[in-house]
Amino acid sequence: MKAHIAILPGDGIGPEVIAEGTRCLHALAQRHGHTFTLSELPFGGAAIDLSGEPLPTETLSTCLAADAVLLGAIGGPKWSAPEAKVRPEQGLLALRSALGVYANLRPVKVHPALLSASSLKPEVLTGVDLMFVRELTGGIYFGEKRQDADSATDVCTYTVAEIERIVRAAAQLARQRRGKLVSIDKANVLETSRLWRRVCTRVMREEFPDVSLEHMLVDAAAMHLIRRPRDFDVLVTENMFGDILTDEASMLAGSLGLLPSASLGEGRRGLYEPIHGSAPDIAGRGIANPCGTLLSVALLLRHSLGLSAEAEALEQAVSAALEAGARTPDVAGDAPAASTRAFGDAVLSRL
Ligand code: NAD
Ligand code: IPM
Ligand code: MN
Questions:
Q1: Are residues 282 and 214 in the same domain?
Q2: So what's the pLDDT on residue 302?
Q3: Could you give the CA distance from residue 76 to residue 203 in angstroms, rounded to a whole number?
Q4: Side-chain half-sphere of 4: how many Cα atoms within 13 Å?
Q5: The pLDDT of residue 241
Q6: Of the ligands numbered here, which is closest to the C-alpha atom of 240?
Q7: Which of 200, 226, 253 marks a domain boundary?
Q8: Which residue, of 32, 76, 117, 176, has the fewest CB within 10 Å?
Q9: For ligand 2, atom 6, which residue shows the shortest CA distance?
Q10: Does residue 232 sit in the same domain as residue 124?
Q11: Which of 224, 253, 282 is the last residue of a domain?
């Protein structure tokens, strides 16, 4: 098949992990007879340095015309001063919004070979396989923002339609998995959460009577997630809670560098990115874990290009590399560690 993929390396470790992702895309294209056209575009802090804006018009229009977008990470201390007028993160929010990718899927699986990489006990982690569905284009991230000399405001708004569509997306996934949905909110305090709970309950009763639904308050969910992670199947939640809980959930897998994500809307086009950031503390050293990016490439192949065999081949190659002992420092413990490139080589040699 022919496909056009927009590549946004971004900042910090973004370009380092994306390089491994594009190597795998080229290898898969060659092996399976596909033509993937990759357009690399400036985004985030790198784009601010070039043109003064984090999401240049040409980057956005190329993403809108592409079959899929693969993103590394953006941001860093250079663009993070409290008084900064333009920020890399604004570009990311604008891109998600322009692409209409309201459903952010963040799967969390524990690889048996990495059980000891986590700071949690192996017996709590064995068999963990859950899926976060984070609402991505609404809530406090997108409400009105104001700051004056002695106060600041961030408005959190959700509409019924926004809640309905994300609950449906999560319930459909639960139906294909173990039929269990947990909806996470703060309905004891927030009006948006009370609306969320009411709409979620109705959609599930009317449209998904075969999927079990449990409501959980976000503070308790943060605790249950590390106390009994195996009990969870699909979790659906609003934008900011999903952001925070998925960084927490990455410690089930063993490292923030391991988790991929797919952001989907109507239609097939999607935005694919590891859940981690630009990691300024390790950027430029060639030691970032590329697994989150490689697994995001697999999600891209599956969801936007419909290439499930190729997606599985890549997931198997990552898994086999880990089984063979390939480890970047974040998951190596006391064992010898591989560079980002060497880990990429270990995956490529198994593709
Ligand atoms: P971060 O996710 O960049 O890093 C947190 C910690 O995890 C660091 O110690 C880092 O070294 C480690 N880490 C992250 N990814 C790793 C990988 N692939 N391999 C090994 N270790 C990894 O979070 P932060 O430091 O709080 O944020 C840095 C910048 O990244 C900020 O500007 C933030 O806004 C931005 N950010 C961007 C995205 C994105 O582009 N989607 C996501 C999160 C944060
Ligand atoms: C993420 C990041 C972003 C978010 C930031 C960089 C805007 O933390 O993708 O998880 O909060 O969505
Ligand atoms: Mn985050």
A1: no
A2: 98
A3: 40
A4: 9
A5: 99
A6: 2
A7: 253
A8: 176
A9: 89
A10: yes
A11: 253
Query: Within the chain, what is the greatest distance between any pair of CA atoms?
Result: 61
Which pLDDT does position 26 carry in this prediction?
A: 98
Residues of the chain with pLDDT under 50: none
Q: What dihedral do alpha carbons 140, 207, 270, 280 form, nearest 10°?
A: 40
DSSP collapsed to 3 states, the chain:
CEEEEEEEEECCCHHHHHHHHHHHHHHHHHHHCCEEEEEECCCCHHHHHHHCCCCCHHHHHHHHHCCEEEEEECCCHHHCCCCCCCCHHHHHHHHHHHHCCCEEEEEEECCHHHHHHCCCCHHHHCCCEEEEEEECCCHHHCCCEEEECCEEEECCCCCHHHHHHHHHHHHHHHHHCCCEEEEEECCCCCHHHHHHHHHHHHHHHHHCCCCEEEEEEHHHHHHHHHHCHHHCCEEEECHHHHHHHHHHHHHHHCCHHHCCCEEECCCCCEEECCCCCCCCCCCCCCCCCCHHHHHHHHHHHHHCCCCHHHHHHHHHHHHHHHHCCCCCHHHHCCCCCCCHHHHHHHHHCCC
The answer to the question of residue 337 being in a domain is: yes
pLDDT at residue 291, rounded to an integer: 98
Nearest ligand 2 atom, CA 240:
11
Query: Which domain, by its residues, includes 290?
Result: 1-105+257-351
Domain count, the chain: 2
Given ligand 1 and candidates 92, 263, 276, 291, which is best to mutate, with the most ligand atoms within 8 Å of its CB?
A: 276
Residue closest by Cα to atom 4 of ligand 1: 279
The Cα 47–Cα 68 span in angstroms is 20
Q: Which residues belong to the active site?
A: 141, 186, 219, 243, 247
Contact 263, 95 (CB under 8 A): no
Are 87 and 193 part of one and the same domain?
no
Examine residue 110 and state whether it is found in any structural domain, yes or no. Answer: no
CA-proximal residue: ligand 1, atom 11 (nearest)? 279
Question: Do 163 and 264 fall into the same domain?
Answer: no
> If you measure from the C-alpha of residue 279 to the centroid of ligand 1, how many angstroms do you get, rounded to a whole number?
4
